[in-house]
């Protein structure tokens, strides 16, 4: 006689669950034994959940919410529950490592070169934990490899794996800067485009990064006409100079006027005192003399 399995309890109240089939005998419809769902859709009986045949058990068997019961059942079957946290997060781990490697082509990512000349394509990289067996590659327009090199360690210089005949390595990684720049010789108009410096460091779980330079090839360098700029700068500078000169002249004139007015006031006071003395008016020195004693 097959033992009926315990279906999971409904997550809402008031909705009946599957009715208990009688142990043994025939079910409704004349079929013997309890009705079973397909294997893929039947819930696994959690550990510790009493079966319906046990005395005092309920059909809607309650399991512990969350992860505790599923974790108990996991080791028995060798499966990991989808509700349990993953054992590792490789995606986050890779992104965290990737940010420790940085590649740079300088302050500007545009370079202009004269036709039939040599042009420098700069590239440097930095890493927080050092490097070992580092691989760097230069690509033209993201598809054509023009230089491929490897660096054993910080103490060794890069060695060539493959390159275009017109490309020369001019960098060095034993100094302070990890310089992996190249020079493109005898530049042609067809060389104009996008150049990508790609670096991969196996020591950092194969962290990789790249930087891009855009090369423009011209027949001759065009001189920039700065006439308008010079005129504007000259006019603005002249106006500022005139304003400063006007302020200085104004201060000098005001100072002279003030001195002149102060001098006139002193002259008026002095002449008024002399007139009073000569005419014997009140307040003169003659009246201020004391009378003789009897």
Automatic annotation (TrEMBL):
<keyword id="KW-0472">Membrane</keyword>
<dbReference type="GO" id="GO:0044325">
    <property type="term" value="F:transmembrane transporter binding"/>
</dbReference>
<keyword id="KW-1015">Disulfide bond</keyword>
<keyword id="KW-0812">Transmembrane</keyword>
<feature type="transmembrane region" description="Helical">
    <location>
        <begin position="228"/>
        <end position="249"/>
    </location>
</feature>
<keyword id="KW-0732">Signal</keyword>
<dbReference type="GO" id="GO:0001518">
    <property type="term" value="C:voltage-gated sodium channel complex"/>
</dbReference>
<dbReference type="InterPro" id="IPR003599">
    <property type="entry name" value="Ig_sub"/>
</dbReference>
<dbReference type="GO" id="GO:0017080">
    <property type="term" value="F:sodium channel regulator activity"/>
</dbReference>
<dbReference type="InterPro" id="IPR013106">
    <property type="entry name" value="Ig_V-set"/>
</dbReference>
<protein>
    <recommendedName>
        <fullName>Ig-like domain-containing protein</fullName>
    </recommendedName>
</protein>
<dbReference type="GO" id="GO:0060307">
    <property type="term" value="P:regulation of ventricular cardiac muscle cell membrane repolarization"/>
</dbReference>
<feature type="region of interest" description="Disordered">
    <location>
        <begin position="1"/>
        <end position="84"/>
    </location>
</feature>
<feature type="compositionally biased region" description="Polar residues">
    <location>
        <begin position="269"/>
        <end position="279"/>
    </location>
</feature>
<keyword id="KW-0393">Immunoglobulin domain</keyword>
<dbReference type="InterPro" id="IPR000920">
    <property type="entry name" value="Myelin_P0-rel"/>
</dbReference>
<dbReference type="InterPro" id="IPR007110">
    <property type="entry name" value="Ig-like_dom"/>
</dbReference>
<dbReference type="Pfam" id="PF07686">
    <property type="entry name" value="V-set"/>
</dbReference>
<feature type="region of interest" description="Disordered">
    <location>
        <begin position="266"/>
        <end position="294"/>
    </location>
</feature>
<feature type="domain" description="Ig-like">
    <location>
        <begin position="90"/>
        <end position="214"/>
    </location>
</feature>
<dbReference type="InterPro" id="IPR013783">
    <property type="entry name" value="Ig-like_fold"/>
</dbReference>
<feature type="compositionally biased region" description="Pro residues">
    <location>
        <begin position="1"/>
        <end position="10"/>
    </location>
</feature>
<keyword id="KW-0325">Glycoprotein</keyword>
<keyword id="KW-1133">Transmembrane helix</keyword>
<dbReference type="GO" id="GO:0086002">
    <property type="term" value="P:cardiac muscle cell action potential involved in contraction"/>
</dbReference>
<dbReference type="InterPro" id="IPR036179">
    <property type="entry name" value="Ig-like_dom_sf"/>
</dbReference>
